[in-house]
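hiii, so i know i said id send this last week but things got crazy w the move. better late than never?? heres the sequnce for the chain we talked about at the cafe, plus the structure i predicted for it. fair warning i was half asleep when i ran it
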Amino acid sequence: MAELMAAIDELPNGYGQVFKLAVIQEMSHKEIAEILGIAAHSSSSQLSRAKKMLQKSLAQYWLLWLMPLVLPLAIYLYKTGKTTDVLGPIVTKQEHTAPDTKHDDEGTPTIGQGTPAIPIVATQQIAIVPVKDVPADSLAPADTLHHTNEETERTNTTTIIHDNKPLPDLRPDKDTHIADLTPEKPIEVEDKGQKWSVDLAYTGSMGEQNANRPFIFTETEMTDVTSKVPRIRSFDKWSDYAEALQSGTLDVDYKTYQILLKIAQNNAAQPGMDMIERKTHHYMPIDFSLALKYKLNNRFGLETGLSYSRLKSESVIGTGGNAIREQQTIHYLGIPLKGTYNMYNARRWSLYGSLGAKLEVPVYAPISTSYFVNGMKELEEKSTLHAPLQWSIGTGIGLQYNLTPDIGFFAEPSLQYYIPTGSDIETYRTEHPFMFSLPLGIRITW
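okay and structure toks below
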């Protein structure tokens, strides 16, 4: 009996409460639902799981095969108040009622009939103490209480002593707050054997990036046919660039040459605007991912899948309506691989950490260049960038709220480091190799 009751006490709080109320106190699931504030079918489900957990926890005893006989016998002995040499004073008879207290002629308190008290199994002797009318120092031991046939009123409050600690009154007509039934510290839920989960997530990086910096035009200068090495010239001032274009020595398409000459001359004519400058705006990267996770054990898991990322940037060279505008967009498909570690798991909330790497392959990288003269678009050119592969490593801490046992919503604040590629293509990631992101998504587990 001692081992059995210890195993019951080791059950999660909800399972233990339902087991005691249903098996020991023989309450219906409807009554249990009213007491604990849960649905009746939840009470039935928790009772079934509690029995399975007890079977597992008691599997170490070679008499487990006798449990179908021992358990009813133990409960019968408990309810009838019979004790054995093994149990000693562990269980006392509980069939007396929760009474009103009166005094006989000698001043000794006596107990009248009243409402049947709820039996609670303890590891010490159990005394049912009517709080009303009976001082603590005058209470007689539980096995010496006297019963009378006199009709009495139901007591207003009953305190049940269990291991020298009061337990809440669980009768339906009593106002027992659900907080009285919860443990002082969270209890982790048991492993239900769920191994796989799939995540659908959206990732938004925090903030955007603007960059203003000097720009240098690099052009090929035409040389005579005897020269085997073309000459490369660089220009950081509009006046110098306009002079080189006007001389006709640069290898530039004629139509583009005419427009570039007007843009360079108009910018050079503005006071204090002779230095060539490029203004760039990098939009916040977006990312969608579909990940598949396998749980190795209660703590560790592996995750992989497929992700899509888009990096968009716009830049302007020139001012006053005389400018060259570029818009580039790089589309990536990525394959992540990371490990996860479950730090905390409760009925509704779970906390985990992650660490991994990702390879992203550029699948499409268009760039559009528009030329404006005095605010009017004169020419637009479209081409494709040759973006490199992108490697990154990252770590994060995830918080998940379980809407149901199989469906949960999660947020996973993460920090990524994008390894430099050596390319001259500017993106949000080249400006911020270390990037903070906030993936939000839904997770389905089975």
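btw The longest strand covers residues 322-345. thought thatd interest u
miss u guys!!
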